[in-house]
Amino acid sequence: MPSISRKGQSMPESPIRKLVPFAENAKKKGVRVIHLNIGQPDIKTPKVALDAVKNNNLEVLEYSRTEGSDTYREKLAGYYEKQGVHINASEIIVTTGGSEALAFALGTVTDMGDEIIIPEPFYANYNGFATANGVKVVPVVSGIETNFALPPIEAFEKAIGPKTKAILICNPGNPTGYLYSKEEIEQLAALVKKHDLYLIADEVYREFTYEGKKHHSILQEKGLDQHAIVVDSVSKRYSMCGARIGCLISQNKMVIKTAMKFAQARLSPPTFALIASEAALDTPQSYFDDVIEEYVERRDLLLDALKEIEGIKVAKPQGAFYCIAELPIADADDFAQWLLESFQLDGETVMVAPAAGFYATPGLGKNQIRIAYVLEKEQLVKAVNILKEALKVYKKS
Ligand SMILES: Cc1ncc(COP(=O)(O)O)c(C=O)c1O
Questions:
Q1: What mean pLDDT do residues 309-336 have?
Q2: Does ligand 1 lie within 6 Å of residue 97's CB atom?
Q3: Ligand 1 mean position to 308 CA, how many Å?
Q4: Cβ of 172 below 6 Å from ligand 1
Q5: Which of 6, 77, 264, 392 is 20 to 30 A from 218 (CA-CA)?
Q6: pLDDT of residue 196
Q7: Quick one: which atom of ligand 1 is closest to the CA of 99?
Q8: Nearest-CA neighbor of 90 among 66, 75, 74, 78?
């Protein structure tokens, strides 16, 4: 048999999806599985976006422009302007989801054998994109005790070596829910300028900030225009995960010119989804106000319920819709699988994401899980109760 590449063999499995076969089996046995494992919000997509697809009279579903249409990118630049981010359409490349923007960003700034520094725990697919590019992830550990705040800047400085090309952050964080402050972003900005590195910020959760806290984009940092690369997406903002539209933004002309070559190789972003995404920009602020209110209520309810579980530690999220919980167990991978294979409460169980896959340092996060609070409150309460009862049984087993 022809061999599989070493790169392919070393591609990590997604910790979010690898338990899916166990969940499917549980469902076949008639068990209802409550999904806390994946960031698929149950929030309705804005009607303006869906209507734009339903009501258009396209006769040929053509390729779109490689970088996305002018009208969409110009309207998008207007959206950023309202957020206090001054960019123009030529600094945006529309991508097939934030995922493709991440792939383009790494493709553009790294060579095989290069290193990127990422505070951990981090969005697990960064490991996959790094592996696909032959790039080593150098983690800098953040801890549950500080709610996963930015680790001391000295720890980043120590991690910088001759092969370091970029620091990659996710703000607000998946899986941590941590929202980096303006001061934390300023520290990172000063560091990348000092060492002439790129700062890549995954800002796909920028809308989801709580308690009146404001998101501070790296694009708002003065003097960072040659260093800053932002990854964004409509997936979470408008609950449009299936549209597969995101973008890469940079004021560095060489970055855009190079990323465009990667973009040309995949021809164009999906045409119908572009139409939906352009229309979604007309979503009224009241939509976001309602969504944020809903997430705050879910988060508070979830944290209160989790705190009732003995021996649990939870970081309080200030953004996005995830939290990391540390459980009184040794191996969350085993526990998550056991929940699906061997446990049910009144015919129901829960699926969680074991957190080890969100770390690059072996052994870290082994007793942690990531919970996505993307379900209705009543479901969340039920799910936490199942977790609580399951832990009692699991500890004895
Ligand atoms: C932090 C982060 N970045 C990027 C993505 C990719 O999003 P998409 O490709 O749907 O835009 C996700 C999806 O969950 C995410 O959580």
A1: 95
A2: yes
A3: 31
A4: no
A5: 264
A6: 98
A7: 9
A8: 74
Q: Which of 237, 210, 258, 275 is nearest to 80 (CA)?
A: 237
Ligand 1, residue 246: give the atom nearest the CA. 11
**CA dist 31 → 129, 339, 374, 379, 390 (Å):** 34, 11, 20, 15, 15
Q: What is the pLDDT of residues 65-124, one digit of tens each?
A: 999 999 999 999 999 999 999 999 999 999 999 999 999 999 999 999 999 999 999 999
Buried b or exposed e, range 385-397, using 16+ CB within 10 angstroms: bbbbebbeebeee
Residue 395 CA to ligand 1 center (angstroms) comes to: 34
98 lines ligand 1 (CB under 6 A): yes
Is any atom of ligand 1 closer than 6 Å to the C-beta of 204? yes
With CA atoms as reference, report the closest residue to 230 among 204, 267, 269, 196.
204
Question: pTM of the prediction?
Answer: 0.95
Q: What are the tens digits of pLDDT across the range 158-197?
A: 999 999 999 999 999 999 999 999 999 999 999 999 999 9
Letter for the amino acid at 269?
P
Considering only CA atoms, which of 392, 391, 373, 186 is closest in space to residue 294?
373
CA distance 302 to 345: 19
Nearest atom in ligand 1 to the alpha carbon of residue 102 is 4
Instruction: Give the phi and the psi of residue 183 in degrees, each rounded to 5.
Output: -65, -40
